[in-house]
Amino acid sequence: MALTKVTTGTIADDSIQSLKNRNLVINGAMQVAQRGTSQAGITGPAQFVVDRMRTGFTLGTGAYTLNHSTNAPDGFANSYHIDVTTAMTLGGASDGCGMVQLLEGQDLQHIKKGTADAESLTLSFWIKSTKTGTYIAELYDFDNARHISKSYTVNSSNTWEKKEITFPGDTTGSLDNDNLASFGLLLFFSAGTNYTSGTLNTSWGSNVTANRAVGQVNALDSTSNDIYITGVQLEVGDVATPFEHKVFSDELARCMRYFEAEVPTWGTPRSSDNVIHSPGYFKVQKRSTPTMTLVLDTYSKNPSIQKVNADYYVTYVTGTASTSLDATFDADAEL
Q1: The CATH number of domain 258-332, selected from 3.20.20, 3.40.50, 2.60.40, 1.10.3470
Q2: Which of 148, 273, 143, 252 is nearest to 200 (CA)?
Q3: What does pTM read for this prediction?
Q4: Residues 132-158: pLDDT tens digits?
């Protein structure tokens, strides 16, 4: 059968381009989890299981397990999951917990922040939580200490619900054009009085901590509670478009800019002095010079990193001639 091309109209090149890479969030479908599928006994901030999804703030009396879950709504295969294992009582004013993704300023210049033409941003995501009630989503501008918060409601317990929130553009404070954290997306799960004692800042303004999460329920107040999130998308405009699914290899590469697990290094001793110099290249150029952490040292050679930058690394070992080097490192360049 012959195929016939049918033309019904013309799509401008810029319209086609606007459909690509519109999601500012990396790994929004929670596909990539290089650090493993679960981490238990978490009691503090800056924890990762799902790549790029940091758990922020101070947890106070609570504890939880982070999972890379297969519980997900139709159209998705994975989610970010918090399983509460010790109830959080919010005993301190600074206690709180939330999911955070930090974004580089150089990836955000097109939102025109700080200009008269500043773009609005629309956040959409799926959430399934045991705790119903009011939750807070926040955008935070680290370059200018400005923020905006919006509330949404979890209506039904343990039910997948899609949420859509539009934030107006901010005409004050441009973002630095660099590889540092300029912007943060925060989804609060609980918040102490330091974050809730004021009036919710629903318009862009200078940071007032007390106005950041007013009304937020404590979704971590029982060991029966679970929170699942997936399909997180932040895009330019006033309307939430369908989630921009990416092939796994593309999303993995984007995540590897910030963290690459089990970077290999190997080599054999030089006959002259039994020293091993083992150079290697990262699969993806890192955001900045990463911190290298030894994960596996097969022959107990105790290797060190002699040189490292965003592109490559050199491992150094001095020892006996009898054993070769076979080791792996994690490379961390997270914001």
Answers
A1: 2.60.40
A2: 148
A3: 0.93
A4: 999 999 999 999 999 999 999 999 999
